[in-house]
Amino acid sequence: MFKQVDTQDLETVEVVVDGEPRKLQAGISVMAALLADGELNSRLSPTSGKPCGPHCLMGVCFECLMEIDGIQRQACTTEIEKEMVINRHLSETGENSHE
Amino acid sequence: MSKCYDVVIIGAGPAGINAGATLAEMGLQVVLLDEQQSLGGQIYRNISHASAELLADMGAEYQRGRELVARFEQSGAGHEPGATVWHVEADGHVYYSKEGTSHQLKANYVLVATGAMERPVPFPGWNLPGVMGAGAVNNLAKEAGLVPDCEVALVGSGPLLLLEASLLIKKGVRISTILETTPKLPPLTAVAKLPPALKRMDFLTKGLKMVSEIKRSGAEHYKGVTKIKALGKERVETVEAYSDSEQLHFPAGLLLTHFGVIPNTHIFRLIGCHLEWNQEQRYWFPKADQWGRTNFEKIFAAGDGAGVRGALAAEYRGELAALELARCLGVIPTYERDLLARPIREAILHDHHPRPFVDAVYAPLFSKETLDKDTVLCRCEQVRVQDVRKAVQEGVRDVNEVKIVTRCGMGPCQGRMCGPALAEVMAAELSAPPERMGTLTVRPPLKPIPLEEVATMELEGSAAQPADLFKNQSK
Amino acid sequence: MSEADVIVIGGGVTGAAVGLGLLEEGAERVVIFDEQLPSQRLSRGNFGLTWFMCKGANNPIYAQWCRMATKAWPAFAAQLMEETGYDIELEWTGGAVHAFGEEQFRQYAASVEAITRSCREVGLDYPVRMLNREEFAALIPEMPLGEEVSGAMYTAEQGHINPLLLLAALRSAFQKRGGTYKGAHSVSAISPKDDGSIAVATSRGTYHCKKLVVAAGHGSPRLLTPLGQKLPIYPQRGQLMVSERYQRVLKVPVLCTRQTPDGTFLIGLSTEDAALSSEVTIDAMKNQAANAIRLFPLLKKLNWTRSWGAIRVMTPDGAPIYTRLDRFENITVLALHSAVSLTPLHVKMIAPWILGTNEAPQISHFSNKRFNV
Questions:
Q1: B231 DSSP assignment
Q2: Cys-Cys crosslink for A55: which of A61, B270, C92, C245, Cβ 3.0 to 4.6 Å?
Q3: Cα(A6)–Cα(B179) distance, rounded to whole angstroms?
Q4: Which residue range forms the structural domain that includes residue B32?
């Protein structure tokens, strides 16, 4: 749903997203990098169980909370770094979800 | 890194950058803490690394940020990027987290320049993935060079909604519709405020040009729409609304919302700053003197966080605060402060001419009918409008009391997204003004941090006593 | 309209419970005034334990009172939930107090023995025992213990609830039974009249009643001083932290750490002399976080999301004050901490005592007069 305007000289980093290795755009936030790669969902709501997507992208709404290197962080204010391990727990039931 | 500063500035938007540069140029020890990796705040996000194409797209207003950043970088002011401030005390202690470690700083003065946020206005489906703030998409363009690759609908009110629409049109994005909740005819209060706005024909002409560009693009554009709904199963697919009695229905691969901008007052409430209520714009802002000093001697406010007036005014107000701080710290005398402040105040006045008119045209509207009972008010805790109404019917009269009964505002965002609308729902239910409902109490941490981080942080002169709940019982 | 049989000043957990009890006992026209002042709303900072353990070490009547309350909790909670539809999240899982190191373990063991002896004197059992480290670990198998944990004192006969929803449920039940709850009403003065009635001046007009209950926490002295009544209470601050949600791993609450059914952890225990400041201090946060991690290392990576400071109403001996005024027998004063644990008794025993329909033998021990000796 988003496309890159200027695709020249884009640097990438290798990270692990939901258990799969992935190359994402470097130098931007984790959430922007996921959006750039076609992902809209950030997590399952711990209260409704439904998928959430980022809303404000400026650190206010906390909809993009996801597990980054073992800690729940706002993906829109966390810069992506190589070898990051990102888990959105999108397929889990409420019992195992870690908000 | 030192732990004591003349001024700790929080927020690297135009107010913070300009204040930091001004103070550092006078030889004061300053550090600017900011959550982002590069200077600029939301308005000048990523300005240092912007491509030529982005600079051209965003226009002269955005380019101004380059000069500001360049000046800051030469001034010698300290900058801590990636620093999330999670507590500030009125005595000047500032706590922040960076790269997994928390730090405590001591400031002679703290300048809070944390800016504004888009006004969160709940409507059915606003929590579906793909419903995003217009500012979010603006940020993606600046930060990552991303533009929507699908049909986009926009809903809301305010000049920034139309600005974002015109930027997207310029980039060739297909816009299915623009649904404005702004009334078809401007209110009478706006007409009275037109004359000063006419002093800034440059500004008004730009606005008119924007509207005509939107018209030329062929995007369907409605004003005075009501009952907006985002629809979709796993994500937004369409948007529905009413124009008079006509039902509107448009595809929306993304639905962008914007209902104006309000100060982000969390940090001021955390510190305990007194707030004032802006009746017309229906928002809280910190009470401050003409230099930005709050009710606390050591705490200053500047920029849109101190009351929304735009990027240019934020820059000027940052400089005014810096002048008074320099005077407080004994670097310039009072008459010099006043001399230096004079042209800045004139510039603020010039910049301000059109604002009362624009504010009146886009004044937010709220009534009991605005919010459907099933609308999710608190996104974090899934609290609906009807849950809040039930609490009010059971006698609850204070927003914090509603919070404990319903969990509205208790989730990770700590009421940032539901607080303003919560007060509106209660006020409508009680036929009382929203400012009477109070504000949600803010306690540390401003943003979540791992328990381990606070457990292991270094604090000056720790004096905590071990707990003894039963000390009364020992014989 | 401004006439009532009984007025309760204060709509916190104590006031709301007593208000409900008065209606259950047959009183009509009961009004609660509640200003909803954040600083006076103790339940906002309450930990949610419904405990008797460790309480009343030097006061067997108080120990007995706490035990009676705890025993009454499960049935009371069931009734309240059925009446109001509010799920107050009662879990009757027992509760523990952890010990670090052998020295603390021995101290705890000695205190269990001492309280057991003192309870026996009044014919009360004290079903608390020491668990060694292995037993404690087996009690909460999904929550690994820190290395320094030597064991815990434990009882199976207590539990925990959601104190915020308890308040909402009490208020709802009170209104469902016909009580009048008036939020955003501040009471400024109490004036006993010659005919035995009492005038209560509020921010929204004066009300008259036959009986009055003052349960306004630290707001009570202001109302009682003009009546010549001193209330020997003092403020004591407690602070607590709240974590993000996590899968349910801790099913038995520990004194300073419990996990709620929705998955958040409540952490902390502090007893501070801070006058009426309910401020949160980073010192305490650091201390409490470090202590909780020492107990349960799993908490390290969990985010701290919220915190609270609240002011307990403490009495010189730690036990509640339930007292009638010397000069005005129809004015009752309630001043106490641990209001959540004692809620069932406030509904079922304090209300009848106020109405004069029944008096539990323990109540006279909690008179204000005990401090005049």
A1: E
A2: A61
A3: 30
A4: 4-117+262-332
Domain range for C274: 234-314
Among C14, C12, C97, which residue's Cα sits nearest to residue C57? C97
Are C243 and C118 in the same domain?
no
pLDDT value, residue B433: 94
pLDDT value, residue C39 = 64
Q: Report d(CA B31, CA B27) in Å as an integer.
A: 12
Residues, chain A: 99
Q: Judge contact between C307 and C285, C-beta under 8 A.
A: yes
Separation of alpha carbons B124 and B122, rounded Å: 7
| Strand-pair category, C205-214 with C198-202 | antiparallel
Same domain as C219, residue C340: yes
- Collect all residues of chain C within an 8 Å Cβ-Cβ radius of residue B444: 280, 282, 285, 307
- Beta-carbon separation of B475 and C307 below 8 A: no
Q: What is the DSSP letter of C312?
A: E
The reply to whether C249 and C290 lie within a common domain is: yes
- Contact (Cβ atoms closer than 8 angstroms) between residue B320 and residue B20: no
Q: What is the ipTM of this complex?
A: 0.94
Mutate to test the interface with C, among B473, B474, B475 (most CBs of C within 10 A): B473
Q: At what angle do helices B399-406 and C163-176 cross, to 10 degrees?
A: 100
Let me know: does B121 contact B156? Beta carbons within 8 Å. Answer: yes
Look at B189-203, B225-239, C68-82 and tell me which has the smallest mean pLDDT. B189-203
Separation of alpha carbons B232 and C2, rounded Å? 53
Letter for the amino acid at B206? Answer: K
- CA gap B211, B8 in Å, rounded: 41
Chain A residues within 8 A of C303 when measuring between CB atoms: 71-72
Predicted local confidence at residue C269, as pLDDT: 86
- Angle CA C315–C320–C324, to nearest 5: 105
Structure-block tokens of residue A63 = 């909809």
Nearest residue to B168 via CA among B251, B230, B256: B256
pLDDT tens-digit series, residues C181-238? 998 889 999 999 999 999 999 999 999 999 999 999 999 999 999 999 999 999 999 9
Give the residue from B379, B384, B416 with the most A CB atoms within 10 Å of its CB, the best one to mutate. Answer: B379
Beta strands in C260-362 (DSSP E): 264-267, 303-314, 321-324, 331-335
Spatial separation of the C-alpha atoms in residues A96 and B326, rounded to whole Å: 54
User: In the prediction, which pLDDT does A98 show?
Assistant: 45
Alpha helices in B272-418 (DSSP H): 311-328, 334-352, 355-361, 385-393, 399-406
Q: Give the HSE-up count for residue B2: Cα atoms under 13 Å, Cβ half-sphere.
A: 14
